[in-house]
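Attaching the record inline, Q. Sequence:
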Amino acid sequence: MADTTFHSSALVKRAITGLIFGAIAGTIELWFFKHDLVHFLAAVVAGPLYMVSLAVFVDRLRPSGGKVLLGSVLGVFVAIVWWAIAVQATDQFVLAAVAGGCFGAAYVWSESRKKT
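Structure, as predicted:
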């Protein structure tokens, strides 16, 4: 029973961390890039979505290899969600997918280096 509580609390911590990172990214989009509130909302949705999906797929399933690849795929998925909410223009789709994949892989790689 304590093991399930640990996973739930870790999932909540990841969601809150993602919400904070998403809010920071959204604020940067509003302030520096002069985007509208839709971009802010997209970043606030994408942050927790990435962190929660990362916790579910990497922490709970514990794949033997390819954590960086899985983080990259999750980053692409979240970038597609962000793009669908904020941009909805075909010329930005590839840029969002590549950026999401790179940032997703970099985050998982940095997290895996901390544990070793």
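Residues 2-115 form one domain. The mean pLDDT is 76.

More tomorrow.
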